[in-house]
Write a structure and sequence with these properties.
The complex is a heterodimer.
Chain A (H helix, E strand, L loop, with lengths): L1 E2 L3 H7 L7 H9 L4 E5 L4 H12 L5 E4 L6 H12 L7 E4 L2 E4 L1 H9 L3 H8 L5
Parallel strand pairs in A: 1-3, 2-3
Antiparallel strand pairs in A: 2-4, 4-5
Chain B lengths: L1 H5 L1 H5 L8 H15 L7 H16 L3 H16 L5 H9 L8 H12 L4 H14 L4 H8 L3 H4 L2 H54 L10 H29 L4 H28 L1 H6 L5 H5 L8 H11 L5 H37 L6 H36 L2 H26 L8 H18 L7
Helix pairs in contact in B: 3-8, 4-5, 7-8, 11-12, 12-13, 12-19, 13-18, 13-19, 16-17, 17-18, 19-20
Classes of the chains: A alpha/beta, B mainly alpha.
Chain lengths: 124, 456
Amino acid sequence: MQYQSNSRSYYSSAAQGGGDPLERVLRLASGSAVVIFSMSTCCMCHAVKRLFCGMGVNPTVYELDQDPRGQEIERALSQLLGGGSAVPVVFIGGKLVGAMDRVMASHISGNLVPLLKEAGALWL
Amino acid sequence: MASHRLGEPLSDSGVPHHHHIPYALPYANSSFINQEGPNFDFGELEEAIVLQGVKINNDDKKQPLYTTIRPSATLEMFPSWPMRFQQQVGSSKSGEESTDSGSAVNTLSTTAPDSPVSRKAAVEQKHHHLQPPPPQMDTATGIPAAAKQTPEKTLRRLAQNREAARKSRLRKKAYVQQLESSRIRLTQLEQDLHRARSQGLFLGGGGIASGSISSGGAIFDMEYARWLDDDHRHMSELRTALQAHLSDGDLRVIVDGYMGHYDEIFRLKGVAAKSDVFHLITGTWTTPAERCFLWMGGFRPSDLIKMLITQLDPLTEQQIMGIYGLQQSSQQAEEALSQGLEQLHQSLIDTIANSSINDNMHHMAVALGKLANLEGFVRQADNLRQQTLHQLHRILTIRQAARCFLVIGEYYGRLRALSSLWVSRPRESLIADDNSCQTTTDLQMVQSSQNQFSNF
């Protein structure tokens, strides 16, 4: 699991102070095969991280409570999901999968693994 | 008009009589609707009586009631009836036989407190007197009402009264219907409560005292008991459908109905999780054997798949792959949720253990916030169960799916029967072999007699 905790350096290299939060979310999401927006204190986020690690996937995790502009991102995510809790949110191959319930439904119905393979996060 | 006469005892009977009226009238009215047809109505009478009843309960003094109620009741009901009539009837109350209505009033006022039957008889008596047209009634009672008013006004008044009476009849019918349906619902609720309570007492060894269960939990228990009955019905339907070798189309309808039935319990559990998540997690709504292996407030999907793999033969190669894939993904999802819950547990322990005297309240608030996450985990676990069932439905053919649901239902039925047997087993279990044979027989008997299921 790769943690982008030192987000300041990352953000300065990207478009600094630019773009609305949603744009930044999408930009971050397309930066890796599997991107999880999380909070270090959230237990459901821990569950979703364990799910991907258990499948042998190496997701990129952004802990919003450790990000100076995390609140903006949190609001943007909440809007994207249509209300409710903003975290955890999963992007695969730059595309939004959703919150925990969507991720699990996708896994049970057998759609998650092909998505991961397509994005290059899983081999075999 | 009918309603005119009816109003008399209202104002002239003694106050204590009114206590009986709300109970008496429904009896009288239902018989009246049968006998006398729609012309007779109690509607406005009952309204006024109920009003009086309320006032009586609030205030014991008879005299003020009498004076305050009388004008409002009579004016409401009989807008055209002259006040003088009331006074005249009052004077005749002592028992004069001067008029038919007067005698009826006396009968009513004297017999009313005794029984609804006598009241009904008295009112019946009244009704018979109403057949003659108003001018004759007036003459009979000696009221010179006709002389005081023009025929047009009288006719208009009568029309108004007819209209009011008709409206009252309709209102009365609606009210009675409402009462009936409420009565049915009440008995149903009582049955459910009794069943839920007896189930809880029987299986939990007196675990659920009526006072210790939350309202959300009690409501869920009742709904779950009803859901189990529905499940029994769905099972029978499926069984007969399979034995009758229905077409796939017909079978699909039944299986889809069963899927909807499962969706319903998950919806109910979602509601219950909001109001009392601990009730779901501790599993007091299930039987002991189910409760022992409970996972996050319900069954463990991978366990169900494991059980089904052996029972669902024959399967195609692709189906076998699908089922094993489902087993693996459900196991991974369960593992992830369990680890998330474990982290919640650890975090909660830390919060509570580290609360000092100074900022105890703050720590408690934090701990409360963490506890609130429990609902999310139970919701996700139920979501997992629901998705697993839907995926089974997708993998299997319609006939296989029907058999699959039947197997699931029977499995949990046996699990619940096992719980019942366990609770009622003889405590002195000195001889193992003999008892085990006995329980097998009991199991078969119990299974056939009570086919309850579901561990959802």
